[in-house]
Write a structure and sequence with these properties.
With 648 residues, the protein is an alpha/beta fold. Among the domains are: 149 residues, Rossmann fold (3-Layer(aba) Sandwich); 171 residues, GMP Synthetase, Chain A, domain 3 (2-Layer Sandwich), CATH 3.30.300.30. 39% of the residues lie in helices and 22% in strands. The chain contains 21 helices and 28 strands. Strands 4-3-5-6-7 form a five-stranded parallel sheet, with helices on both faces. A five-stranded mixed sheet has the order 12-13-14-15-16, with helices on both faces. A five-stranded mixed sheet has the order 24-25-26-28-27, with helices on both faces. The radius of gyration is 25 Å and the shape is globular.
Length: 648
């Protein structure tokens, strides 16, 4: 697109000044900010940041949840020709050191006291930080550190500067060009230091516009911005497409009110990673377990009907008269109330991305009338590579290449992408850039997959993770760990799973139970427990998880390609996998290699056929202290099944 983010903002402010641009829930009340409000505030913040010394081409860190003035601040940074660098608000201080030093950040804008404390803690390691600006002043009244000031003070000084220099802001915006750097996003760093992905206005806006065209988005959409702005997916949906389309972005009061806020807003366009949809389904299943026998019976009957005919209905296929009438009855008494409970009563398009979603989970939402679709992309591709058209959404594909995208496959099955949305480079990392960007403009995704006969892309797994079983009855069979893990995570009792099997004769899995779902299950059976570690090792819980594992094995047996990936042995971990302990990325992706090293005794015990193994693990608490959790874990065998032969 031949424009920039600040120019789009000013266009909306000129053409529709009184229309709502963002809403923020504060003290339980939704407050709207118009496009005119947004433009005026962006000007004040930009002028204030200019007075603090922010120069064209410099980086400014932004850390916080979704807040209107944090979005306005990113626009202000871009208006000055500087580059916003959003970081995850739940990252510990040590995780921020490398990005801040790598980008030579001198000015940071943060949300509240928690983030201020984090930056003050690491300031000795990042001495170049001259200014820390905070949005929420609560708890900061008595802070007197050098360079620390409120956003309100920046706005006040910026307003005075703008009054004296009325043409300054517009002149700065006019200098911006589509190919200027617009933002930098740091990857999750699953294998080392994170890399700064550099994007231009053109690359981000081209993909935002292409996605909007694909799903016919307009200014009438309502979006709830609740995921970290540092995640490129949230940034595209609530920032890039917000400015392309001019729809309303709603910011929840805080993380604990998201479920309530989702129902109040009733978004028409929704985006979430699979873990969010998994959590919602878990909550539904827990509530149904506590319902009366009549309600459970009705729920089961109509959900079985929905599973059978719902996906066909969503795909635009006609149903028989009886099934149509039954589905309408189900919609009246089950599906409609369920969509309303989830906050999806008005959703026209819902997307999931970030990692593969389990097919059963995907089918569940579509079967109750939610137009859930998958997309494929990454930070480096500005999200939008493939999208699923309406009536063509399938659990085993991630859609078709959209406008401006070319896809081809390397000899090893790796997916290569060419589009206008590709990164400029990895910041200060020419070697890594050369590894992923070829001289002729193809981006190496590191994902393995193929295009099916309908032109839809199928993702198998990461190229480096797709392996082979070695030895035993399944010698040479393909092993795709993420596929196996996702099938396990469909069950409400399993929160996380880590599968191993490449180069080995069988597949073994380590499981995290979902404390809420498993705890509720235990309480209804009068099964006492003293916490996660105690509950995880209960024989009854092991029997429950074993049943889930064996159901997955039965499904895998029917898959010709992955029948050899059935799970032979498993254990339930004594602690929850945690990003603070390095076991997950900040986007909650499993760091499989790190976990294998950390829990090597458990992996060895699984493959050695042991029935139990003692483990002691160092954990990090929220206040920064460390401690130890130890337990003797049970290791169990699981039943596997002979591959199902295809019908002649």
């Amino acid at each position: 697109m031949q424009t920039t983010f600040p120019r789009l903002m000013l266009t909306h402010a000129t053409q529709r000044p009184t229309a709502a641009a963002m809403r923020e829930k504060e003290y339980g009340i939704w407050q709207a900010h118009t496009w005119a409000d947004m433009a005026a505030q962006v000007q004040r913040i930009a002028c204030g940041l200019h007075l603090l010394g922010l120069q064209r081409g410099q980086h400014m860190v932004v850390i916080g949840a979704n807040r209107p003035w944090l979005y306005a601040s990113m626009l202000a940074v871009q208006a000055l020709g500087a580059i916003p660098v959003p970081l995850y608000q739940d990252a510990v201080g040590g995780e921020c050191v490398f990005p801040i030093n790598n980008a030579e950040v001198q000015l940071a804008l943060v949300e509240d006291q928690e983030q201020v404390d984090k930056l003050l803690e690491i300031r000795p390691q990042c001495p170049q930080i001259a200014h820390i600006v905070y949005d929420d002043p609560r708890g900061l009244r008595n802070y007197a550190e050098a360079g620390l000031q409120s956003l309100a003070m920046v706005i006040e000084s910026g307003a005075a500067f703008a009054a004296k220099h009325p043409g300054f802001f517009q002149a700065e915006v006019d200098q911006g060009q589509p190919d200027d750097v617009a933002a930098m996003f740091f990857t999750s760093g699953t294998t080392g230091n994170p890399k700064g992905v550099v994007h231009s206005h053109r690359s981000l806006l081209d993909r935002a516009q292409a996605g909007a065209e694909f799903d016919k988005l307009s200014s009438a959409e309502e979006v709830l911005a609740y995921l970290p702005p540092a995640w490129v997916g949230q940034n595209i949906f609530s920032y890039g497409q917000w400015l392309c389309c001019g729809y309303v972005v709603n910011c929840p009061e805080n993380a604990s009110t998201v479920t309530i806020d989702l129902k109040e807003v009733g978004p028409t366009y929704y985006f979430a990673p699979p873990r969010v949809f998994e959590g919602m389904l878990t909550s539904v299943m827990i509530r149904m377990e506590d319902a009366s026998r009549l309600k459970r019976g009705l729920f089961k009957y109509f959900m079985d009907l929905a599973k059978r005919v719902g996906p066909q209905r969503m795909d635009g296929k006609s149903l028989g008269l009886v099934d149509s009438l039954l589905y309408k009855a189900g919609d009246w008494c089950i599906y409609g109330p369920l969509r309303n409970t989830l906050g999806f009563s008005r959703v026209r398009v819902a997307y999931t991305a970030g990692e593969a979603i389990g097919p059963d989970l995907f089918t569940f939402y579509r079967s109750i009338g939610i137009n859930l679709k998958q997309l494929y992309g990454s930070t480096e591709t500005a999200v939008f590579v493939c999208l699923q058209p309406d009536h063509e959404a399938r659990a085993d594909t991630v859609g078709v290449p959209i406008r401006g995208v070319e896809i081809k496959l390397a000899d090893n099955g790796e997916i290569l992408v060419k589009s206008a949305g590709l990164l400029k480079e990895y910041y200060k990392n020419p070697k890594a850039t050369a590894e992923v960007l070829s001289a002729d403009g193809w981006y190496h995704t590191s994902d393995a997959g193929f295009l099916d006969s309908h032109g839809h892309l199928k993702i198998i797994d990461r190229v480096k993770d797709v392996g082979r079983i070695k030895g035993g009855a399944n010698d040479g069979a393909m092993f795709a760990p993420k596929y196996v893990e996702n099938k396990l995570k469909f069950f409400p009792f399993i929160k996380e799973a880590v599968a191993y099997g490449d180069g080995r004769e069988k597949v073994c899995v380590m499981v995290n139970i979902d404390m809420e779902a498993a705890g509720n299950w235990a309480e209804r059976r009068n099964l006492p427990y003293a916490g996660y570690t105690d509950l995880a090792q209960k024989p009854e819980v092991y029997a429950l998880i074993q049943d889930c594992v064996e159901q997955v094995n039965a499904d895998l047996a029917a898959d010709k390609l992955l029948a050899g990936s059935q799970i032979s042995r498993f254990l339930v971990l004594h602690k929850e996998l945690d990003a603070d302990d390095g076991e997950l990325t900040r986007t909650n992706k499993v760091r499989r290699g790190f976990i294998a090293d950390k829990y090597q005794p458990l992996v060895d015990a699984l493959y050695a056929g042991k029935s139990e193994q003692f483990i002691e693990t160092v954990v990090k608490f929220e206040d920064g202290r460390t401690g130890q959790v130890s337990a003797t874990l049970k290791l169990s065998d699981a039943k596997t099944f002979a591959p199902v032969q295809a019908a002649a």
